[in-house]
Amino acid sequence: MLKGFKEFVLRGNVIDLAVAVVIGAAFTAVVNSLVENVFNPLLGALFKSESLNTAFVVAIPTLDGKTANVAFGAFLGALIQFVLVAAVVYFVIVVPMNHFKRITTKPTVADEPAAPSELSLLTEIRDLLKTGESSPLPPARDDTTDGR
């Protein structure tokens, strides 16, 4: 049982996944900082508020006489953060990896031409029968005679 656990933990996929989670957490902190400290204040200045979290706040009265605040600006900030993460992942990870694959993977060249399809063979046989030409193949052996 311990041997199986050891193999599972030391398997390459588990290690790669652990590294991805740690890097992802660090990357999330960077993106959060970018959104909160750069984009939120810039967009907040456009909407005359401290940040997106306080922009586009709509107060809705509740049944008990108080108000509930709907923060559309906070949602807009989260949406911007998602787009930034997706863009960085695409341009920093996906595009370079695809380029690397193209460079390292050589296209395979077929050594032999592709075999003709059944339809093309039947069409060729039909055309030969129409013209009355003999087949390009050697005549078939007749095994029914003795051949002596």
Describe this structure in words.
The protein is mainly alpha-helical. It has a domain at 2-104: Non-ribosomal Peptide Synthetase Peptidyl Carrier Protein, Chain A (Orthogonal Bundle). Helix content is 61%, strand content 7%. The chain is built from four helices and two strands. The protein has helices spanning 2-10, 12-46, 72-104, 118-131; strands at residues 57-61, 67-71. The protein has a two-stranded antiparallel ribbon. The longest helix has 35 residues, at 12-46. The chain is elongated and about 110 Å long.
SSE layout and pairing:
Layout: H1 2-10, H2 12-46, E1 57-61, E2 67-71, H3 72-104, H4 118-131
Antiparallel strand pairs: 1-2
Helix pairs in contact: 2-3
Quick description:
The protein is mainly α. Helix content is 61%, strand content 7%.
Helices and strands, in order, run as HHEEHH
Low-pLDDT segments:
none
Q: How many DSSP helices? A: 4
Based on the structure given, which CATH architecture of the domain at 2-104 is correct? Orthogonal Bundle
List keywords for this structure.
single chain; 148 residues; mainly alpha; Non-ribosomal Peptide Synthetase Peptidyl Carrier Protein, Chain A; two-stranded antiparallel sheet; 61% helix; 7% strand; elongated
